[in-house]
From TrEMBL:
GO terms for MF: magnesium ion binding; phosphatase activity
Protein name: Cof subfamily of IIB subfamily of haloacid dehalogenase superfamily/HAD-superfamily hydrolase, subfamily IIB
One GO cellular component term: cytosol
NCBIfam families membership: Cof-subfamily, HAD-SF-IIB
A Pfam family annotated for this UniProt entry: Hydrolase_3
Top-level taxon in the UniProt lineage: Bacteria
Length: 269
C-alpha cells in the first residue's frame, strides 16, 4: 500500500548521538528491498544530509532546508529550490540583529555567520558543517545579491516564541516561520515546507498521498505529517504534533522508525 517513506532526521531517525541505529538501518534496508522509496526530510543543509543518505544507500530526492531545497542524493538533480527573497532576508537580519540573537545565513549550500559564537559552535557540532564568519550580515547579503535558501535564528525558546509572535503578523503569507528545535527559529519561502516538498517528491515518482508515510517529531514536521496518507509522530514528539498524527510510534531512542516499517510496510505483527 505504501510506496514512499519520508523521515525527519534529528530526534526522529537519529538517536541522541546523531547516529542511525542498527535496528533502524536494517528495517530501512528491508523497506527498500520491498520496493519502497526511502527519503529524508530535514531542516539540515543538503551537504549535512548527504552523509546519512549515503549511509542508507538512498537513491531519491532529499528534502532539505525544511523543504526549500529538494535535490537528488545521487544525480544531484534539483527538483525544487524555493529561497527566501533577498528583501525579506535583509529585513529579518536587521530586526533580529537589534536583539543580538545569533543568525545563520545559507547560500549555495554554505553556512555564513557574522562571527563565531557559542551558538555557531553548537550548530556546527550538530550539523557537521563549518560556518564561515563574514562580518556584518546585511552588507554581506547585499554584496552577494542572492536570495538565501534559509535564515535561521538561535536563541532561548521563550525569546524565539516572542520573536515569532512579533514577526509572523508582519510577514504574513510572505514567509514560512517555524521551529525545528526549541532553540532554532527558521525563516523560509512560504512554500518551503516539508509538506510542499514531500508533495513534490511524490509527484516525481507519480505517487499519491495515500501511498506515502511521513515520520517526524517537531513543528516543522507538521505539514508533511498532515499531507501524507499516514502521518506518524515518534513518542518523544511535542504533544501538539502527536495530537495531529495518525499514529504514534515509540521514541527515536527505541527504534521508532523501525517499528513503523515493520508494522505498516512489512506487515509484521
Amino acid at each position: 500500500m505504501y510506496r514512499l517513506l519520508a523521515l525527519d532526521l534529528d530526534d526522529t531517525l537519529l538517536d541522541k548521538n546523531l547516529r542511525i541505529s542498527e535496528d533502524n538501518r536494517r528495517a530501512l534496508a528491508l523497506a527498500r528491498d520491498a520496493g519502497v522509496v526511502v527519503t529524508l526530510a530535514t531542516g539540515r543543509m543538503y551537504r549535512a544530509t548527504l552523509p546519512y543518505a549515503r549511509e542508507l544507500e538512498i537513491n531519491a530526492p532529499l528534502i532539505t532546508y525544511q523543504g526549500a531545497l529538494v535535490k537528488h542524493a545521487v544525480t544531484r538533480e534539483v527538483v525544487v529550490h524555493r529561497p527566501v527573497p533577498l528583501a525579506c532576508a535583509l529585513d529579518i537580519v536587521a530586526r533580529v540583529q537589534a536583539r543580538s540573537y545569533h543568525i545563520n545565513i545559507y547560500l549555495d549550500d554554505h553556512l555564513y555567520v557574522e562571527r563565531h559564537t557559542e551558538e555557531s559552535r553548537l550548530y556546527q557540532s550538530i550539523s557537521g558543517v563549518q560556518a564561515r564568519a563574514v562580518g556584518p550580515l546585511v552588507p554581506f547579503l547585499k554584496e552577494a545579491g542572492q536570495d538565501p535558501t534559509k535564515v535561521l535564528v538561535i536563541a532561548g525558546e521563550e525569546k524565539l516564541d516572542e520573536l515569532a509572535a512579533e514577526l509572523k503578523p508582519l510577514y504574513g503569507d510572505n514567509l514560512h516561520i517555524t521551529k525545528s528545535k526549541p532553540y532554532f527559529l527558521e525563516f523560509s519561502h512560504p512554500q518551503a515546507t516539508k509538506g510542499h516538498a514531500l508533495a513534490a517528491v511524490a509527484a516525481f515518482y507519480g505517487f499519491k498521498p495515500a501511498e506515502v508515510i511521513a515520520v517526524g517529531d517537531s513543528y516543522n514536521d507538521l505539514e508533511m505529517i498532515e499531507w501524507a496518507g499516514l502521518g506518524v509522530a515518534v513518542a518523544n514528539a511535542r504533544p501538539q504534533i502527536k495530537a495531529r498524527a495518525d499514529y504514534v510510534t515509540v521514541s527515536n531512542e527505541d527504534g521508532g522508525v523501525a517499528r513503523v516499517v515493520e508494522k505498516f510496510i512489512l506487515g509484521w505483527a
